Amino acid sequence: MAATTAQPMGSLPSGLGICTTAPDIFYIPELVFGGLVWILVASTHVAPPNPLGWVMFVSVFCFVMTFLWMIIFAAGGHKNSSHWAAADFAYHGLAALFFLSAGVDLAIVTVGAKGGEIKIYRTYISAVVFAFVATLLYFIHAILSAIRWKYF
């Protein structure tokens, strides 16, 4: 008989296992696309400050929290409690909602910047696309985390 090394349904991975399981494989793309939104918005003159301030807050907050979340899962710090599956779903759902609102705000600012400098306009377009890709990644992660939470 062959021994199986697969994790049981509903268990939370740790170590390099987070690079191979369905919801946790999205950590790296979330960091990349969220970081790109952060970099692109930060590389331009922030005018108007209020909506773009929200975009910066969301991108920095989600980047830092996703990185910390990934480190906690990789180090196995989540093994001490059974509430991590619910917390994983709650965080990624909140991050998806945050990035959706930031993407809409950034899209509105981008439409207003159409008559301005073309380099800033193109940078904002790229940031809007990356914000909506990050929204999709966080949403998929939240759905898969909800499914995992159901079986945990």
TrEMBL record:
<dbReference type="GO" id="GO:0016020">
    <property type="term" value="C:membrane"/>
</dbReference>
<feature type="domain" description="MARVEL">
    <location>
        <begin position="18"/>
        <end position="150"/>
    </location>
</feature>
<feature type="transmembrane region" description="Helical">
    <location>
        <begin position="54"/>
        <end position="77"/>
    </location>
</feature>
<dbReference type="InterPro" id="IPR013295">
    <property type="entry name" value="MAL"/>
</dbReference>
<dbReference type="InterPro" id="IPR008253">
    <property type="entry name" value="Marvel"/>
</dbReference>
<keyword id="KW-0812">Transmembrane</keyword>
<feature type="transmembrane region" description="Helical">
    <location>
        <begin position="25"/>
        <end position="42"/>
    </location>
</feature>
<protein>
    <recommendedName>
        <fullName>MARVEL domain-containing protein</fullName>
    </recommendedName>
</protein>
<feature type="transmembrane region" description="Helical">
    <location>
        <begin position="89"/>
        <end position="112"/>
    </location>
</feature>
<feature type="transmembrane region" description="Helical">
    <location>
        <begin position="124"/>
        <end position="147"/>
    </location>
</feature>
<keyword id="KW-1133">Transmembrane helix</keyword>
<dbReference type="GO" id="GO:0019911">
    <property type="term" value="F:structural constituent of myelin sheath"/>
</dbReference>
<keyword id="KW-0472">Membrane</keyword>
<dbReference type="Pfam" id="PF01284">
    <property type="entry name" value="MARVEL"/>
</dbReference>
<dbReference type="InterPro" id="IPR050578">
    <property type="entry name" value="MARVEL-CKLF_proteins"/>
</dbReference>
<dbReference type="GO" id="GO:0042552">
    <property type="term" value="P:myelination"/>
</dbReference>
